[in-house]
Amino acid sequence: MRRVLVTGVTGFAGSHLVDFLLEQGGYDIYGIQRWRSRTENIEHFADKISLLECDLRDATSTRDTLEKVRPDWIFHLAAQSFVPTSWSAPTESLTTNVLAQLNIFEAARHMGLKCRIQLACSSEEYGMVFPNEVPIKETNPLRPLSPYAVSKVAQDMLGYQYWMSFNVDSVRTRGFNHEGPRRGPVFVASDFAKQIADIERGKKAPVLSVGNLEAQRDFTDVRDMVRAYVLALEKCEPGEVYNICSGKAWTIQKVLDYLLGMTTAKIEVKQDPARLRPSDVPILLGDNSKFVRATGWQPTIPFETTLRDMLEYWRSR
Ligand code: GDD
I need a labelling partner for 107 at 20 to 30 A (CA). Which of 5, 86, 205, 264 fits? Predict the structure, then answer.
């Protein structure tokens, strides 16, 4: 049995990753949570994995956990992941994201732990991308446009540096946007789907609030994304970086239109200035060929299906 530690297990990608690992079998799965973590995403498998109390921002807590588990693989998904929060609380975003990873690396290195670590880096790192740079390759300059993006650049570079300096084996996955059921209600597709479901059941006036609809994002279903994370640790080179994306971009307007096309409710769309960002990444459209060459991965779930599943998720709650 391979011993696997999942940070961020109570979150969106973490819980889908555990679903996938359980389905595959052959894994002894450990997850960490803080005392106040919400557990609704993990209740359906809580008796099939081992849950440990750990705060990754605390070096002692992190080292104790790694000593208890001695994992073969770590999927490091825990993070402050919402871009706007990183403007209202930049210190918190930077500290949480950078320190958590540093504590894992330092613990692993001092213990001489032989393990592979998947790092959930982000397409947000590319930030300001010019029209002649799409589809974006891993070699594109990083021009981060938010404190969150800067925190992910730091995580990414630490991955490279700890491999070069100390042979701490990590694979840096630059995940582009991923969506699906259980997605936090602040992220765009989930936010719009939840507003529609709330309007349909009369919980909300028939006005859907939106931000910048011009932005373009490359969306992958979370279930394809977590499968890619596993392949990354199975097949990718240590210290290397890989884009994980579908290679197709949708404008946020198109996401909105597709969701609105699935309801019969009469809904007015209104821009809320509070939803506009100090600087928004205009386009993220990735080139996944390096990852596909290394692993054979292909996304299998069309984004239309993902959006339908998300709307059904919010309707059923
Ligand atoms: N959240 C939100 N709410 N976004 C909106 C809205 C709205 O009402 N209206 C328009 N948008 C636009 C945002 O301005 C942005 O351009 C796009 O929709 C996507 O926003 P998010 O869903 O919040 O995601 P993100 O692209 O900022 O970041 C996500 O993807 C990254 C990978 O590229 C997050 O999951 C990050 O954690 C992840 O690293």
Answer: 86
